[in-house]
Specification:
It contains 9 helices and 16 strands. The chain has helices at 2-21, 38-53, 65-74, 90-114, 160-167, 190-201, 228-236, 244-256, 272-278; strands spanning 25-30, 57-62, 81-82, 85-86, 119-123, 130-134, 138-139, 145-146, 152-157, 171-175, 177-179, 185-187, 205-210, 225-227, 261-266, 285-288. The strands form 5 sheets. An 8-stranded mixed beta sheet has the order 5-10-2-1-13-15-16-14, with helices on both faces. It is globular, with a radius of gyration of 19 Å.
């Protein structure tokens, strides 16, 4: 009986958040271990379906770095990263499109459907809704400038196709592949795409799933909350490194453009999204304006 009462208390705790967020868009960057572990994959799909059924509008932008690495290695090739961005030649771009735009994207769509949701997969090529331009040069840690290949930075998001899907009752599932002015596909960091999509849709929240507990401060402690200014200071001081750089960068850009809050969550925690949205304590690190 006590367990049942505890469950009812959780529902009551969630009620004011459900009421407050009803009808709002939540952009979720889905990646890391949460995409690899079968139980976490299943839980993620159930969580976004639940969000849709209680009146929120989840939009999923997924990564797939480990899966791309596996395919690249299986082909006997090598792919390196600069500040969390993958150096992408033509052969690697074919793998990116095959893995991200094909197998992974449709796998997420199917899993959401299995749990009663209606999902549609798309890339930035669809209706040319994500336009990007090629990044010509990037600087390595040693100071050397290199051409990263078919890596792009977003210049425009036309969100109408995503809005139409939301209005039709669907959960959009977006692979981070953009298109340039000449129709050539470009690989774009999924965190960055999620931030731009959140901005274009006027999202209430941007949630970034990762494989760490949250943003660490100068002393290595997990920070539960950061202001925009504090996050900028950590970035400028070099406290952030590796894959955390594009996450915080896109969170800052999204907040500056009007998104209410950005959250960096540990995707290895079951139901991390629901815990962050519908409970008083939350999990991970929130970055607020």
């Amino acid at each position: 009986m006590q367990d049942l009462i505890s469950k009812a208390a959780v529902l009551q705790e969630a009620l004011p958040y459900i009421r407050s967020f009803h009808g709002d868009v939540f952009v979720i960057k889905y990646g890391g271990h949460a995409m690899i572990d079968e139980a976490l994959r299943d839980g993620f799909a159930r969580d976004v379906v639940l969000m849709k059924y209680v009146g929120l509008h989840p939009v999923v932008v997924h990564g797939g770095g480990p899966q791309i690495d596996q395919m690249v290695e299986a082909m006997g090739a090598h792919s390196e990263r600069l500040d969390g961005l993958r150096v992408t030649n033509d052969a690697t771009m074919e793998v990116v499109e095959m893995v991200l735009g094909g197998k992974l994207n449709q796998g997420i769509v199917s899993l959401i459907g299995k749990h009663g949701g209606r999902a549609v997969g798309l890339t930035g090529r669809d209706d040319r809704f994500i336009e990007a331009k090629k990044i010509d040069l990037m600087t390595t840690k040693s100071g050397q400038e290199v051409d990263p290949g078919r890596v792009g930075e977003v210049v425009k998001v036309r969100p109408q196709v995503v809005r139409d899907l939301i209005d039709g009752g669907f959960i959009p599932v977006i692979a981070p592949i953009a298109v340039d002015a000449d129709g050539m596909s470009l690989n774009v960091n999924a965190d960055t795409v999620a931030g731009h999509v959140a901005e274009a849709l006027g999202a209430r929240k941007l949630l970034l799933l990762t494989d760490i507990e949250g943003v660490r401060g100068r002393d290595g402690e997990i920070l539960s909350s950061l202001s925009l200014e504090e996050a900028r200071a950590l970035k400028a001081e070099g406290v952030l490194e590796g894959g955390m750089i594009p996450k915080v960068r896109c969170a800052l850009a999204a907040l500056a453009s009007g998104v209410n809050k950005a959250h960096i969550l540990d995707g290895r925690v079951k139901h991390a999204i629901l815990l962050e949205i519908f409970t008083d304590a939350g999990v991970g690190t929130e970055i607020v304006r």
